[in-house]
């Protein structure tokens, strides 16, 4: 059965100290989660500029980088399902990245997309696929597997036939590169997430789950509402069909991640509500 996990990025605002981090992880465990997905720049000290950039993007990283995450996950009994990193770090020293992943007991390293990158540039996409293959081969030599995590930018068309994501799927070898599929971002981008999951098949090793809808009230000016992330089972996504597909290919983990719009502005309350859906289906 797939591990139920939470992406560390969701927890930035509740990792202000070791005590608060322990309370947060204990609340996760009590809610029914047995895993966590770590971010490379949230388990190491980072510079002020990176903190400000992530905060401006609505994804504050908090003070987790100052904590001993090996001890925290060990003491709370959580499994590390993967380690998020960036392609540049992996290209500079694949052995070091692999060693850190293995030190946390996970076999997966995940590239979380590319920044300052044009996903509409076909030549750049062909080059990215080659880089991912090389990085995946280097990790494989260390006994670690490479996954690519999507957002909505991979849905950009790069020619009359292909979207960016299709080039990455078609030009990376499954012996070197597979995928952590985020169904929320493809749904947000207007795509049929279930159809894409089916196309990935067994190359989908991890699944990022979220729901999408609104808890806002309409205004006097217009009945149209702005949608955002929602707790699982409270939005409009067909999570049941997505879950059936994910389990049919034996994903190793189903990982909750949302960045905002939490009930009572609390990521802990939000993950507790979402756990009810996950505990019912996993």
TrEMBL record:
The segment(s) forming the Xylose isomerase-like TIM barrel domain are 25-278
Checking Gene3D superfamilies in the record gives: Divalent-metal-dependent TIM barrel enzymes
Q: Which InterPro entries match?
A: IolE/XylAMocC-like, Xyl_isomerase-like_sf, Xyl_isomerase-like_TIM-brl
Pfam families documented for this protein: AP_endonuc_2
Q: Which residues form a coiled coil?
A: none
Q: Tell me the protein's name.
A: TIM barrel protein
- Name its species: Ruthenibacterium lactatiformans
């Amino acid at each position: 059965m797939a591990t139920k996990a939470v992406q560390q990025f969701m927890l930035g605002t509740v990792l202000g100290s070791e005590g608060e981090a322990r309370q947060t992880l204990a609340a996760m465990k009590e809610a029914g989660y047995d895993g966590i997905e770590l971010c490379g720049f949230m388990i190491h000290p980072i510079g002020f500029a990176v903190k400000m950039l992530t905060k401006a993007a609505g994804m504050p990283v908090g003070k987790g980088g100052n904590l001993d995450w090996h001890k925290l996950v060990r003491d709370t009994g959580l499994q590390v399902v993967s380690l998020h990193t960036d392609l540049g770090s992996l290209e500079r020293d694949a052995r070091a990245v692999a060693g850190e992943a293995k030190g946390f007991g996970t076999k997966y390293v995940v590239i979380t997309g590319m920044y300052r990158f044009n996903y509409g540039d076909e030549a750049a996409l062909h080059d990215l696929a080659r880089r991912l293959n090389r990085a995946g081969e280097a990790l494989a030599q260390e006994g670690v597997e490479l996954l690519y995590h999507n957002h909505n930018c991979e849905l950009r068309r790069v020619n009359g036939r292909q979207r960016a994501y299709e080039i990455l799927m078609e030009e990376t070898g499954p012996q070197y590169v597979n995928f952590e599929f985020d169904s929320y971002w493809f749904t947000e981008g207007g795509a049929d997430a279930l159809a894409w999951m089916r196309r990935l098949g067994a190359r989908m090793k991890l699944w990022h789950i979220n729901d999408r809808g609104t808890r806002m009230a309409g205004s006097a000016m217009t009945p149209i509402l702005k949608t955002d992330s929602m707790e699982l089972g409270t939005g409009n996504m067909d999570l049941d069909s997505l879950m059936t597909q994910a389990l049919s290919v034996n994903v190793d983990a189903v990982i909750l991640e949302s960045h905002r719009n939490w009930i009572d502005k609390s990521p802990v309350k939000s993950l507790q509500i979402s756990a009810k859906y996950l505990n019912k289906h996993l």
